[in-house]
Amino acid sequence: MSDLKNRLAMERRLERRQRRREEYHRGLRPMAIAAWNITKEHNVGSLVRTAHAAAAAEVVLVGERDWNVEAAKTAELYTTVTQLPDIEAFRTHLESRRWNLVAVELDERAVNVFDAEYPERPCFLLGAELAGVPAELLDDAELVVQIPQWGLVPSLNLAIAGSIVLYDYLAKLHGQGSLNRPDGGLVDQNAGEPEGGDDVDHKG
Ligand SMILES: C[S@@+](CC[C@H](N)C(=O)[O-])C[C@H]1O[C@@H](n2cnc3c(N)ncnc32)[C@H](O)[C@@H]1O
Predict the structure, then answer these.
(1) Which of 11, 38, 179, 196 shows the greatest Cβ crowding within 10 Å of its Cβ?
(2) Residue 196 pLDDT greater than 60, yes or no
(3) What is the H or E stretch that residue 33 is in?
């Protein structure tokens, strides 16, 4: 291919990417996912990837930690990740964005996820790998939700727990007939290709 053709092809790719990014941003849902003081970086990547897939408006990381983009599989390029240093900053952020706090935790005041009725504009908060969600944030939460387990290991991986609850919320919106674009990205049997594009990493 000539230089000119290469350049034109590149420009078209960039324009397509920009259009898809704008379209994605227009379709963001009023929900967020937050994590308290995560220590394992790949868990942050996994949460960002789920938040991105579900079209959550943002991921909020509370606590001073670096995180690894690897597990996010490019999702971090499109999903807003807000880092906040402490609980006070988190509370201020929740208020300014009008998020309603939903703690995801194994706790005696928690309701079973199957019975959960979520508030509007939920911000789902996951706890740290070892210490869980701090007591003061459990106190702040409008709802505490837990995922039943039948195994002998006492808890789920936090990114998995976050993903289950986020999609439970979407499933309930769908059940009420209020989820827009319910079939986003599903493989179309006629077309045979998932939605996505040349800048999206489908693997991993
Ligand atoms: C590995 S767990 C924390 C460990 C837990 N504190 C313990 O005593 O073993 C990390 C986080 O994942 C979430 N989590 C894990 N399993 C859960 C479940 N069954 N229901 C709700 N949240 C869960 C919570 O947010 C929790 O703080």
Answers:
(1) 38
(2) no
(3) strand 29-36
Do residues 202 and 77 touch, judged by C-beta distance below 8 A? no
User: Could you give the residue ranges of the DSSP H alpha helices within the chain?
Assistant: 3-26, 41-53, 87-97, 135-140, 158-175
Alpha carbon nearest to ligand 1 atom 18, residue: 147
Q: How far is the CA of 142 from the centre of ligand 1 (A)?
A: 18
What percent of the chain shows pLDDT beyond 90?
Answer: 71
**Topology annotation, domain 29-179:** Alpha/beta knot (3.40.1280)
Confidence label for 187 from pLDDT (cuts 50, 70 and 90)? confident
- pTM given for the model: 0.89
Ligand 1 within 6 A of CB of 45: no
Find out whether the beta carbon of 155 lies less than 6 Å from any atom of ligand 1: yes
Instruction: Give the Cα separation of 155 and 61 in Å (integer).
Output: 21
What residues does each domain of the chain span?
Answer: 29-179
The residue nearest atom 24 of ligand 1, judged by CA position, is: 105
Mutating to test ligand 1, I would choose from 36, 60, 102, 105 the residue with most ligand atoms within 8 A of its C-beta, which is 105
Residue 76 pLDDT level (bands cut at 50, 70, 90): confident
User: What's the confidence (pLDDT) of residue 135?
Assistant: 96
